[in-house]
Design a protein that fits this description.
The complex is a heterotetramer of chains A (100), B (204), C (416) and D (1005). Chain B is α+β, with helices and mostly antiparallel strands and 204 residues long. Chain B folds into two domains: 106 residues, 2-Layer Sandwich (Gyrase A, domain 2); 78 residues, Heterotetrameric sarcosine oxidase (Alpha-Beta Plaits, 2-Layer Sandwich). In chain B, 22% of the residues lie in helices and 31% in strands. Chain B contains five helices and eleven strands; from the N terminus they run αββαβββαββαβββαβ. In chain B, strand 3 and strand 4 form a beta hairpin. In chain B, helix 2 packs antiparallel against helix 3. Chain B is globular. The relative contact order of chain B is 0.22. With 416 residues, chain C is α/β, with parallel strands linked by helices. In chain C, the strands form three sheets. In chain C, strands 1, 2, 8, 9, 10, 11, 17 and 18 form an eight-stranded mixed beta sheet that branches. An eight-stranded mixed beta sheet of chain C has the order 5-6-4-13-14-15-12-16. A two-stranded antiparallel sheet of chain C has the order 3-7. Chain D is α+β, with helices and mostly antiparallel strands and 1005 residues long. In chain D, helix 5 runs parallel beside helix 6, helix 5 packs parallel to helix 11 and helix 7 runs parallel beside helix 8. The chains are: A mainly beta (100), B alpha+beta (204), C alpha/beta (416), D alpha+beta (1005). Chains in contact: A-B, A-C, A-D, B-D, C-D. Chains C and D meet through helix 1, helix 5, helix 7, helix 9 and strand 16 of C and strand 6, helix 3, helix 4, helix 12 and helix 13 of D.
């Protein structure tokens, strides 16, 4: 069971959180201007890397705050936790590099 | 305010007052319902000194800014809920005046004052095995080195979300739980406490 | 292929079983094939078999990075059924079930298809409405399905807690009598043996590291055993779809999650039916060896590790003990997880891609095992004919652009 | 009762002053406190104790711990019966009853043993090759196979015991209370760190419990006692005996199974749980899990009386029980020489020590010879003889390579064979933690290599066997672990415990003994005793291409038994490596998965069963409903009153009465479960415009508006009424089921996307109780309860809100309607909910006010054609599909879900659309979920054009009504469609989905 360091509450069990999937997918500014495939890309297409994944979590049973997590999808190691709006830290999150 | 006799606490139907004993004796775990507290959900910018000052002015309380801490002042206690959220707990029927004072003080700021007094029931848990009972359903580290008097945390106890507040060294705890989950949590606590001996006391 | 039968068993007993031959060869890869199938799980092996059998294409290699059949093929809870809501799914899974029904004889390998019935429980009024909609749709699609009352369910599964005061009371259920289980390993082995007998090369311990292209056309695969040329490449990799797709720059609407399962210690028979409860995320059956086989819901986060989180198991077993009180004193012997590739509509992607000669078959989520022969059958057709069979046409990648999704969360929401 | 014939007169850790009675296979025996069931059976000379899984061969006790493959018993009877218990792990208590599993009629005469005669027909995987004819007959064969399979029996009744769970945090968790673990715990404990020491046995000491060893110049057991006493006195140390660490999960999360009362039998105190699951988050872990001896494999090595040498020593030394009277020790290493000496010491004749090493030298062989025991170097036991028990072994010389036998065979009479093929470090938990294993040639076994988590292995688990090294390394590891967890040694340092050095010669890696008969011809060399997997089975698997360790395991079932192959797996790998001509590390080890030993389902479920299975959420008015005999329906975790039957009424009667009351007079409903979200902030309006399909700009203070919320995929997600309370203050309501989800959804957007929006959201669902008063006389009723709210249609129009006092309680009253009638929803703080409900009931008495439940509510809204999210929508339904294009703003440039609505399939004509259905026979009520066809005469597969989403008997209309989603439904009004059911087809006409007061006159009245 993961131990996730909430940026506010500190380390808590995974069960207190909800996973919001891949992070850093901004909502398109003008969806009407997008083609159907472009819109589908925003809606559905995901990196799903085998390696470091930057994803969003919310401390749903605690302070109810959303934040970003960089986590390895094989070792489950959490490499970084950072707030919404902040850029991902350098963790080698390029999936090509970190295929194991 | 309406007549108090019209009110029913979340656990009134369990007949806890009738079960209450004056002296818990050898019981390892002591439970009570602590009804009627005023509760206000307060939102505002923790970085804004103006907000903090206005709150202190209004209710005589410096809001706790560190996660998991509490602060008391005036007649109220504030529990940290999030980086911009607190639960202000007042004595019974104190929420109206406190909310008015807060609203007046914060009217020009981006803040929110919401009376949630009936949202949560409060269950008092004490006795020498109080911590053991909590550990059965709560994954927080409650060791005195980590979680002592004055600490609070939102977490889960079994399958209910709970705002936990340790009120003394004994340790004694107040468990704030959403009203509709209160009966479930009470029954769960009774079951978990069975191993240590249980006494119900009056918490009014 | 030496035929398996009771007679061959007796004959070989005389020679102390020293004369059995390999079930499949382990050849080194040739330099080129007409078709390379990436992924030696059940679906990939079935694809190769049907390419050879139905389309006469035998110059085929199946490349597998590890040993065949040890991914999700060997990690699922072996449930087979075709009781899906939408026509598109119902027809595809029913094709698969029909192929399963003759598979032991066709492949001459006992896959132990046991059509002991698959029961879905309803615990509230909403469940009952959904169940009725599903059963009516399945029936009108010509597939067997029936609604059972709580009383009929109690008679069928005596160990089920049917008390009206249960936390999750059993208000009714649907039964697909043709549903059941099969021996998962045997399905992979049987397809491997039969494909091999038709000339397919099964190449184990051969990991694909790149896809060769010439312009918009695929020309082969780079592997740890060297370049293998092929005019057509079919990718059938559960739990690794995104990794393979990235090799040709394809972005997928897929996320990979752990799906957990466990078995109890073996006990004498107590459960003859497969029982599933979507509401409480429990599904269980009893294997021929006597183990109760239980599956849970997926873990919420992306993962390529074949392990999951304990709370999922605790939650599932609590519901299970409540539904089946007598299992409380049984014990969990092994727990594990598979990696399931989940699409937003809980339906697979089987078809062509923008890259010519590059075909994909993945995203079966939690329900791949039951689809094994059907998936292989339609995928072989798609590769051989360079166009989807009507059965898999709705399951294209383009559906995510048009919005024509096949939303099977109701059927697949609880994993199987 | 027979005396304990095989009990030694003195010694052991049993308490001879506390005899205990027990029953095994119907016979009564006596043992002592401190015995396990296995040791008591040995003390009574009981053999065989079990039959094997496949061939039903008689079997005896092989081990003394968790590794036991054979002695699997059914413990107790009735509701407390427990299948598949290892006799070696069952502590004896007075009155214990146990029986062998999987044999009939008895363990001594088992009809299943016919399989042993047929064994040549039953090689590994035989079932894959047969039972295929005639087609479709598999399930008939399977019927018998299923009945033959399985070990013990499940109880027939619910479990009367209770189970507990405990979350726990530790700086250092030490797994295993042998010398290494005790030393580690002492070292860590002395730093003040929080330490947990868990051990599966009833007392700490591990292998030291077998006696003999020396620590710090005295008997090791004295040191153990002192160490335990010191640990017990430490405030931050938790000692858990009878506690097996079962699982090692991500981020140093481990589970421990504590057997709290299992060893007490009927004497177990009623207030204690039977078992407790400790869920430990550990800063650091020290794995001192020891090792398990492995056997040497020879022909018919499964005969009762053949056991692990260490187990024999344990029975003699710890339990004072004699596993035989004349022993042969067969070993490839020095450790079993100690066993030979112990046996001799206990008065058991040791006929010989057989050792494949050509010239066994060193102190232990020397002492053995000095004791007068014959040591047969360069030789091996090639076969065992005997039926119910081993009677003799055959010993032959080995050639240099160990691959063949030489010389004459010698028959040695014995009733006990103690085998030792070396030791496998218990690396299960290490492997579970993700750590990588390494094959150690000297040890001929796998040892921990690279750690994946904050953990270290010590002692035998790390391949360190000498006691002195175990103590030193354990102590050091304890200090290291504590230091990494932030605790340094305090005050004067205390030295590690010391033990005298021992000299041992290296083992000779040796797995399967060759014999004069080709393997698999006539005799059986067992690798996996529980699953009856032999060397010939492995050879067959390899021959057929099942060459990976994992294929081998699955094809032969090796290691898949309840013992998980703890003693046989490495041997199996060795045989495999020999057959495929590769070294052991390259054929690999199988992955160890949790749990280490089986964990009870009931324990994992904990107390979350029965009444505590899942929270039952109840409203503030629930008790009233209950007292009035309401029938409830589950909506999520809530219990909602479904209908309120009066005496003698059917559901149908009650619901009709409730509906008519609302249409004709007044009804009252508890609507407290609807979600309520308080929205405050200058950007509240912007938020509403983002998340709802319609525009909110012109909503006046005190007015309400209905809103539809979509997912980003354009599909209907939730709906509800939102009220503007003040300039920047709104109250949103959601569906009951959507309450938590909608709040989370809004928060997600605010916190992850629209960080600049100044809005605060607070759930107030639980703060308010909601009493909905609906019907033409609602106004009259309410007017008796309020003096400060003008209820007139003009002053208080439809879709508005007024604050005031109702029944003396401050309230918000919303004039909104889900029934189509004049309706007021009174919101009061939840603690007043019951009082206000009662006041409404009293005030309504003269109007015959009728409480109504969710069923009547569903009918009333269906008559009006109002959708219920989840019934008329299913996650694939757009606003247009349910005829609600009118609420989708064309002017707003964007809102959540807007873009998806213009995708080709979403915008397409002819999608499933909401219609009404009126059956041709007005008495016929369609079943909900019925599928609709246009051509009923066809046979399946039929083309389905839609389905019934809601269907009721409408008492108000005196006929049935239904809502349905039908392809192109909006253009089908007036068409006749058909719903094929079992045995009949019902025809209906497509209509507008509004059946009652379509102009909405009543609700505005």
């Amino acid at each position: 069971m993961l131990l996730i360091p909430c940026p506010w509450c500190g380390p808590r069990d995974e069960t207190e959180f909800s996973c919001g999937g891949e992070g850093h997918i901004p909502r398109p500014a003008d969806p009407a201007a997008l083609t159907d495939p472009e819109w589908a890309d925003y809606l559905f297409m995901r990196k799903n890397p085998k390696g470091v994944h930057t994803e969003r979590w919310v401390h749903s049973q605690g302070c109810r705050r959303w934040f970003n997590v960089a986590r390895h999808t094989v070792s489950h190691e959490i490499l970084a936790v950072y707030k919404m709006g902040e850029p991902p830290p350098e963790t080698g999150a390029d999936s090509k590099q970190n295929r194991t | 305010m309406a007549e108090a006799y019209l009110r029913l606490s979340a656990l009134a139907h369990l007949g806890l007052e009738a079960r209450a004993v004056a002296d818990p004796g050898e019981a390892g775990v002591v439970l009570s319902e602590r009804p009627g507290r005023g509760q206000i959900d307060l939102r505002g910018e923790a970085e804004d000194a103006g907000f903090l000052g206005a709150v202190e002015q209004a209710i005589g309380l410096a809001l706790p800014l560190e996660a998991g801490t509490t602060a008391s002042g005036g007649a109220a206690t504030a529990l940290w809920l999030g980086p911009n959220e607190w639960l202000v707990v007042t004595p019974p029927d104190g929420q109206g005046a406190a909310a008015e004072a807060l609203r007046a003080a914060l009217k020009d700021l981006w803040a929110a004052v919401t009376d949630v007094s009936d949202s949560r029931a409060v269950i008092g848990l004490s006795g020498r095995h109080a911590r053991d009972v909590l550990m059965k359903g709560c994954s927080l580290d409650l060791h005195p080195r980590v979680f002592g008097p004055g600490r609070s945390a939102q977490s889960a106890v079994a399958r209910a979300l709970v705002l936990l507040h340790q009120t003394d060294e004994a340790p004694s705890y107040d468990l704030y739980v959403h009203r509709s989950f209160a009966e479930y949590l009470w029954l769960w606590l009774e079951d978990a406490a069975a191993e240590y001996g249980l006494a119900v006391v009056s918490g009014g | 292929m030496k035929k398996y039968s009771i007679f061959s068993l007796v004959r070989n007993a005389v020679s102390y079983h020293e004369r059995w031959s390999e079930a499949w060869r382990s050849p080194e890869p040739k330099g080129a094939y007409e078709v390379v199938i990436v992924g030696g799980g059940g679906h990939g092996l079935a694809t190769a078999y049907y390419l050879a059998k139905e389309h006469g294409i035998t110059n085929v290699a199946v490349v597998e990075k590890g040993w065949l059949g040890l991914g999700n093929t060997g990690r699922n809870t072996t449930i087979i059924r075709s009781n899906y809501l939408w026509d598109e799914s119902a027809h595809l899974y029913e094709k698969s079930l029909q192929l399963y029904e003759g598979l032991s004889q066709e492949l001459n390998f006992n896959i132990m298809l046991s059509q002991r019935g698959c029961l879905n429980l309803a615990h509230n009024q909403h469940d009952l409405r959904q169940l009725s909609r599903r059963v009516n749709a399945i029936r009108l699609n010509g597939i067997d399905s029936e609604i059972l009352t709580a009383g009929q369910i109690k008679a069928l599964v005596p160990i089920l807690n049917c008390s009206p005061t249960a936390r999750y009371p059993v208000l009714g259920g649907s039964l697909q009598r043709r549903g059941g289980t099969a021996r998962h390993d045997a399905v992979a082995w049987a397809f491997a043996r039969a494909a091999d007998a038709r000339g397919v090369d099964i190449i184990q311990n051969c990991e694909v590291t790149g896809i060769r292209r010439d312009g918009g056309r695929v020309t082969g695969v780079e592997t740890t055993k060297g370049l293998i040329k092929a005019g057509k490449v079919g990718v059938v990799v559960a739990g690794h779809a995104s990794v393979l797709a990235e090799m040709v720059g394809l972005r997928l609407p897929i996320e990979s999650h752990p799906l957990q399962a466990l078995v109890s210690e073996p006990i004498k028979p107590v459960l003859d039916t497969v029982v599933m409860s979507a509401a409480v995320h429990v599904y269980l059956s009893q294997s021929d060896k006597g183990e109760l086989v239980l599956g849970a819901g997926i873990d919420s986060y992306n993962s390529y590790a074949q392990r999951g989180s304990l709370p999922i198991i605790e939650h599932m077993l609590a519901a299970c003990v409540d539904l089946f009180p007598i299992v409380s004193r049984l014990r969990m012997l092994r727990q594990w997880a598979g990696i399931v590739d989940v699409c937003p509509d809980a339906s697979p992607i089987v078809g062509k891609t923008p890259v010519e000669g590059f075909y994909v078959n993945f995203g079966w989520g939690t329900g791949g095992f039951k689809a094994t022969p059907g998936s292989g059958w339609v995928f072989a057709y798609t590769i051989a004919q360079d166009r989807p069979h009507p059965l898999n046409e709705p399951f294209s990648l383009e559906r995510f652009h048009t919005g024509y999704l096949v939303d099977e969360h109701g059927a697949a929401g609880v994993a199987h | 009762m027979s005396p304990q014939r095989h009990r030694l007169a003195a010694g052991g850790r049993i308490d001879r002053s506390r005899p205990l009675n027990f029953t095994f296979n119907g016979r009564r025996f006596e043992g002592y406190a401190g015995d396990t069931l296995a040791s008591a059976l040995i003390a009574n000379g009981v053999t065989p104790v079990a039959r094997s899984f496949k061939y039903h061969r008689p079997r005896g006790i092989v081990g003394a711990g968790a590794e036991e493959p054979n002695a699997i018993v059914q413990l107790e009877t009735g509701a407390r019966t427990q299948p598949n218990q290892r006799a070696t792990r069952v502590e004896l208590y007075d009155g214990l009853t146990a029986a062998s599993v999987n044999c009939w009629p008895s363990v001594n005469f088992d009809l299943g043993a016919v399989n042993n005669l047929l064994k040549r027909l039953l090689p590994a995987g035989f079932y894959y090759k047969t039972f295929m004819w005639p087609p479709g007959f598999w399930m008939r064969y399977e019927y018998f196979i299923r009945r033959a399979a399985g070990l013990g029996k499940a109880p027939a009744a619910p479990d009367p015991d209770r189970y507990d769970k405990m979350h726990c945090h530790a700086d250092v968790l030490v797994v295993g209370g042998g010398p290494s673990g005790l030393a580690a715990a002492l070292a860590a404990g002395r730093t003040g760190a929080r330490v947990i020491l868990a051990d599966g046995q009833n007392e700490f000491g591990g292998a030291l419990l077998d006696g003999g060893a020396e620590i710090d110049g005295g008997p090791a057991l004295d040191w153990v006692a002192a160490a335990v006493a010191e640990l017990e006195a430490m405030a931050e140390v938790r000692l858990l005996p009878r506690a097996t660490v079962a699982g090692y999960y991500d981020h140093n999360y481990l589970t421990i199974v504590e057997r709290v009362t299992d060893h007490l039998g009927a004497a177990a105190p009623a207030n204690l749980p039977r078992q407790r699951l400790w869920k430990v988050r550990a800063g650091q872990v020290v794995l001192a899990t020891g090792s398990v001896e492995r056997p040497l494999v020879f022909a018919d090595n499964d005969r009762p009386g053949i056991m692990l040498a260490s187990a024999a020593a344990t029975y003699v030394n710890r339990y004072a029980a004699k596993p035989g009277s004349r022993a042969v020790v067969f070993t490839n290493n020095d450790s079993a020489y100690r066993v030979a000496l112990d046996l001799a010491e206990a008065g058991i004749e040791v006929a010989a020590v057989v050792d494949p090493r050509p010239e066994p030298e060193g102190p232990l062989p020397a002492r053995t010879r000095a004791r007068g025991i014959e040591v047969l170097g360069g030789q091996a036991v090639v076969a065992a003889h005997g039926g119910g028990r081993v009677a003799a072994v055959e010993v032959m010389g080995l050639d240099q390579a160990g691959g063949g036998v030489i010389g004459e065979s010698r028959r040695v009479r014995c009733d006990l064979v103690c085998v030792s093929g070396g030791w496998n470090p218990t690396v299960h938990l290490f492997s579970q933690s993700g750590g990588r294993l390494r094959y150690d040639d000297a040890l001929a076994g796998f040892v921990p290599d690279r750690s994946a988590q904050a953990e270290r292995s010590v002692g035998a688990a790390a391949g360190t066997f000498a006691l002195a090294d175990c103590l030193a390394r354990g102590f050091e590891a304890g200090l290291e672990a504590a230091a990494e967890a932030g605790f340094r040694r305090k005050g004067r340092s205390r030295r590690a415990p010391k033990a005298p050095a021992q000299e041992e010669a290296p083992l000779r890696p040796f797995w399967v003994v060759p014999s004069t008969v080709a393997r698999g011809r006539g005799t059986k060399h067992f690798i996996d005793l529980q699953n009856d997997v032999t060397v010939a089975d492995v050879a067959l698997a390899v021959r057929e291409g099942y060459r990976s360790a994992e294929h081998l395991k699955r094809y032969t079932t090796m290691g898949m038994g309840t013992d998980q192959g703890k003693i046989g797996n490495v041997t199996g790998l060795a045989v495999l490596s020999e057959l495929v001509d590769a070294d052991i590390p390259s054929v690999g080890t199988t992955t160890f998965r949790p749990p280490y030993t089986p964990v009870g389902f009931g324990l994992l479920a904990g107390r979350e069963v029965g009444a505590l299975a899942d929270p039952v959420r109840k409203t503030a008015i629930h008790r009233w409903h209950e007292d009035r005999g309401a029938a409830f329906e589950d909506v999520g975790q809530w219990k909602r009153p479904w209908y309120f039957p009066r005496a003698g009424e059917s559901m149908h009667d009650a619901v009709n009465r409730e509906c008519l009351a609302v249409r004709n007079s007044v009804g009252v409903m508890d609507a407290s479960t609807l979600g309520k979200i308080d929205i405050q902030g200058p950007d509240a309006l912007r938020l509403l415009n983002w998340v709802y399909t319609n525009a909110w700009d012109n909503l006046k203070i005190g007015r309400c508006r209905y809103g539809l919320m979509l997912g980003e995929d354009g599909m209907v997600m939730d709906d509800g009424v939102t009220t503007r309370l003040a300039e920047h203050h709104y109250l949103m309501t959601t569906t009951t089921g959507g309450a938590a989800g909608v709040l989370a959804w809004l928060e997600m957007w605010l916190q992850t996307e629209w960080l600049d929006l100044k809005v605060h959201l607070t759930s107030v669902t639980e703060h308010w109780a909601t009493v909905a008063v609906a019907g033409p006389r609602a106004r009259e009723l309410l007017s008796a309860l309020t003096s400060d709210i003008d209820l007139s249609a003009k002053a208080f129009p439809f879709m508005s809100m007024r604050a005031g006092t109702v029944a003396g309680v401050p309230a918000r009253v919303f004039r909104i309607s889900f029934t189509g009638e004049l309706s007021f929803e009174i919101n009061v703080p939840a603690s007043y909910g019951m009082a206000v409900w009662n006041a409404v009931m009293m005030a309504g008495e003269k109007y015959g006010v009728t409480p109504f439940g969710t069923e009547a509510m569903h009918i009333l809204r269906a008559e009006k054609g109002y959708i219920i999210v989840g019934d008329e929508t299913d996650g694939t339904t757009t606003p247009g599909d349910v005829g609600m294009d009118w609420i989708v703003s064309k002017k707003k440039p964007d809102f959540i879900g807007k873009r998806s609505l213009s995708r080709p399939d979403t915008a397409r004509e002819g999608r499933k659309q909401l219609v009404g259905l009126l059956t041709q026979d007005p008495k016929e009520v369609l079943p909900e979920g019925g599928q609709i066809v246009a051509e009923p005469e066809k046979k399946p597969p039929m083309k389905m054009i839609g389905h019934v989403t809601s269907s009721y008997w409408s008492a108000s209309l005196g006929r049935s009504i239904a809502l349905a989603l039908v392809y192109g439904g909006h253009k089908r009004h007036g068409e006749t469609v058909h719903v094929p059911l079992i045995g009949k087809t019902v025809s209906a006409v497509v209509s507008e989905p509004r059946f009652y007061d379509p102009e909405g006159v009543r609700l505005r009245g």
